[in-house]
Amino acid sequence: MSTLGVLVLRLAGPLQSWGATSRFAARRTTESAPTKSGVIGLLASAAGIQRGDDEALAPLAALRFGVRIDQPGTRIRDFHTAHHPITGKAMPLSERFYLADAIFVAALEGDPALLHHLHTAVQRPMYPPFLGRRSCPPAGPLDLEFHANARLEAILRAVPWQASAWYRTHHRQTLPSHLTVLHEKQTGDHSPADSLRDQPLSFSAAHRRHALRDVITGQVPRPTDTRHNPLQHDPFAALSDDLDVLDEEGA
Q1: pLDDT tens digits for range 88-117
Q2: What domains can you pick out in the chain, each with its CATH number?
Q3: What is the distance of C-alpha 185 from the center of its chain?
């Protein structure tokens, strides 16, 4: 068996939006977790691959993809208006959905040489990265880890929990014992799966195409994050405590 590598990304930002079924629609929804198409598009952009270069895209699209939901975020809706850049005529009103304050661990499994190249590209991207839409920049560095000899499932179980300090504090009484993981179904795996049309075939503006892929949803125990320091300074801690008191008094 050939050696496989795993590239791990931390996807966090004020807003994210991972659409899979609403291209060019007036109602543009978001999935509850990053799509393969969106993450492969991010990596292709970082590596400088042009939209119409389907040959260069193919090796990236062949990577096996998985994601762990470390901080689910909140789904919000925005009413979007626009005007034609030449005529000035108003365009149809559209609804756009986002995930606010969400954090995900995304992992890609495949050829170690390719993943090492992508790891370098993410650290010094050719084009600015975004989390599903151009209006959603990441809040910090995307690269988390690169393993030259590893498997996707094991990595998603072992990577330290990435939830933010305010989330841990605000939800300290209801923190989950397990985290949701979604990963691609492998050949020979008979586990129940859902189909999602987010397997990228082409990002060309003239003929953008996606295929179906089978996605398995499961749970993993929440990993211990030994790097998290519960005593680190949080400038909003006092405000959060005051809000907790008001909530209790209001109840």
Answers
A1: 787 777 788 999 999 999 999 999 999 999
A2: 5-250 (3.30.70.2660)
A3: 18
